[in-house]
Model the fold of this input.
Amino acid sequence: MMSLQYFTPISGLIGGSLIGLSAATLLLFNGDILGASGLMSSFVVAPVKTLTDPSQQWKLSFLAAFALTTRVYITMIDPDALKDQRLGYGESTVPIASPLAFIVGGFLVGFGTKLGNGCTTGHGICGLARLSKRSLVAVLSFMATGVISASACSVTCPFYPYFRASYESVVNSLPTNTTITIGTVIASLAAGSAISGFLRKSPSPNATKTEQDEYTNNRRKIIPSIFSAAFFAIGLVTSGMTISSKIYGFLNVKGISAGTWDPTLACVMGGGLVVSFLSYQLVKGFNVFKNDKALECPLTQKKDGGKFSVTTSKVIDTKLFIGEAMFGLGWGIAGLCPGPAMFLAVAGYQNVLMRWWPSFFVGAFLAEKVKNIGKDSSSSK
Done:
């Protein structure tokens, strides 16, 4: 009989709403989409552009603010925020991802989200909110394979000895002084890059109006991106999505009959979707309800040059299916998607920082190469 003893709907809805508010802030003020996988993969797919192009400065500000919020939250606000109570009780139904699971999971998530152009935030919170059929297909794809991989990886699965570890091994994945230092250094580097961009010299008096407007618009994106990142980080930890048993608790549907199923993730997605959906009602061309005052330009942007960078692609192809299916498999194997993985890496969790993220970047890099091969073959015809 299903008891729902681990179900935390209130914190799930609050956390999800904060994630939705994060997406809404980026959309309404900057005209950008909240996509954790896209943001992080840009550092390996187009590192020079991401680090030096003024139009990408908001990404550095977002990452810096996210890292700072994470460090402040787990050191000053709630040091026990990342403790998994179910593991504390030694519950045998909670799967423990092995080091190999983090490597394989990170690679699949990196490759899949790059090939399918999105993850739980990009396709889930943002795509579904604008009623995108493409995003609906993506969400159904990664949810299906996520459920399959998480539910099937039981003791009878041939991959179980490779992807699952013993309860005693949990201590080997906890933060150490070294990994905490690495996480702090990453946060500091991100902050330094963001500050250097903020101090970028203004255009010369001889600059064209277009150049001056671009400079102004890029600078005006910095503050909203900082608030968006703070909302995102707090939303993730408040909702419990940074705790693996909350993810496995939802994806492993065998828990329904065992009485351990946890539908909190549905509340997180629901809360995020509602807030994100409401924000799209304020954007011209994406509003379902009539709104004569819908925005044609983001709130902080000058009309000359300012625009909403919202994808309108309706293509549902093999790359979307395969990419999102791979993402779901990786999600179910390691119990991580990019957003929570960002939080845990900054917090210094060993397997996330040293195994999951390097594998994610390799996967994203290779997926971009595969996509380019497809473009080259199409253009040569």
Remarks:
- The two ends are 59 Å apart (CA to CA).
- DSSP finds 18 helices and no strands in the chain.
